[in-house]
User: What shape does this take?
Amino acid sequence: MTCKVAVLGAGKMGEALLGGLVRSGRPAPALGVTCRRKARAAEIEARHGVAPMGNAEAAAWADVLVLAVKPQDMGALLAEIAPAIAPGTLLISVAAGLTTAFFEERVPAGVAVVRAMPNTAVLVDEGMTVLSGGSHASQQQVEQAAELFRGVGHTLTVPESQQDAATALSGSGPAYFYFLVEAMTDAGVLLGLPRDKAHELAVRSSVGASVMLRDCGTHPVELRAAVTSPAGTTISAVRELERHGVRAALMAALEAARDRSGELATSYA
Ligand SMILES: NC(=O)C1=CN([C@@H]2O[C@H](COP(=O)(O)OP(=O)(O)OC[C@H]3O[C@@H](n4cnc5c(N)ncnc54)[C@H](OP(=O)(O)O)[C@@H]3O)[C@@H](O)[C@H]2O)C=CC1
Ligand SMILES: O=C(O)[C@@H]1CCC=N1
Assistant: This one.
C-alpha cells in the first residue's frame, strides 16, 4: 500500500513540497495537507487537487508527517497533534534551527524524527535537501525521508551538528544568488543599460555559470580563470570585488545565518 504523506502548513515551502509530491506521481488519495486559513485551503486544493484536512486528523491518518510551519508556530502545532501521533509515524521537520530533540521532547516517546533542510529550488525539481536523523530514527527512516525529497531534487545526509551550517549555505543559498543577480542588474543600469536588458544579461550569466558548474566537473577557480583574460576586463572587476571584501562579506553572512539558525532552537524551546 502507498505510504500516506501529509504536509502540515502549506506556506511557501509546504506548498512547494506538496506540489513536488504530486509531480513525482504520488496519488492524491495518499496525500494530505493542512492550512490555517480557509482561503488558503481553497487555493491549495484548486492548485494541487489535494483536499485539506485538520492537523490532528492528518496526524492520525498519515504514515509520514512533513512539518512545514515556521519555527515560532511549531510548539503550538506539536501540542495540537501530539496526542494523535501513532507510534510508527515518521516525523519530518523542515523548520530552520529546530533540533530533533525539540520534537522528541514534544511527541510520544520513541517517535522517529528526521530534520530536513530543503531549499526553494524544489519548485523546479532542482532542490537540495540536507537531512539528519534524530535519536529514534533508523537508517531506513532517514532513507525514506530522503526518498521523498529526491522527487524534487538532490539530498545529502549530515550529522545534525552540521545542520545550522547547511541551513546557512544551502537552505538560504538561493537568496544569495538572487541578491547577486539583483545587484548585477543595478550595476548594468549604472553602466547605462536599460533595466530589462540588464536583468536578462544578469540572469543568463547566472544560469550559464550554474549549468557549467553543475555539468563540466571543473573547479570554480578554474572556470573563473578561463573568463579572466590577462590585462582584461574581468581581472579589473575581480580586483574591486576583493578590495570591497566580497569574499569576507559572504563568510560573515553565512556565519550570521548559521548563528541565527542556532538561536531559533533556543528562542522557541
Ligand atoms: N522558505 C524557504 O526557503 C525555506 C523554509 N524552510 C522552513 O519551512 C517552514 C515554513 O517556511 P515558509 O514556507 O517560508 O513560511 P510560510 O509563512 O510561507 O509558511 C508557513 C505556513 O504555515 C501555516 N501555519 C502556521 N501555523 C499553522 C497551523 N497550526 N496549522 C496549519 N498551518 C499553519 C501558515 O499559515 P498562514 O498562511 O495562516 O500564516 C503558513 O501558510 C519554516 O519552518 C522554515 O524555516 C526551510 C527551508 C527553506
Ligand atoms: O530564512 C529562513 O529562515 C528559511 C530557512 C532557510 C531558508 N529560509
In short: The mean pLDDT is 97. The chain has twelve helices and seven strands.
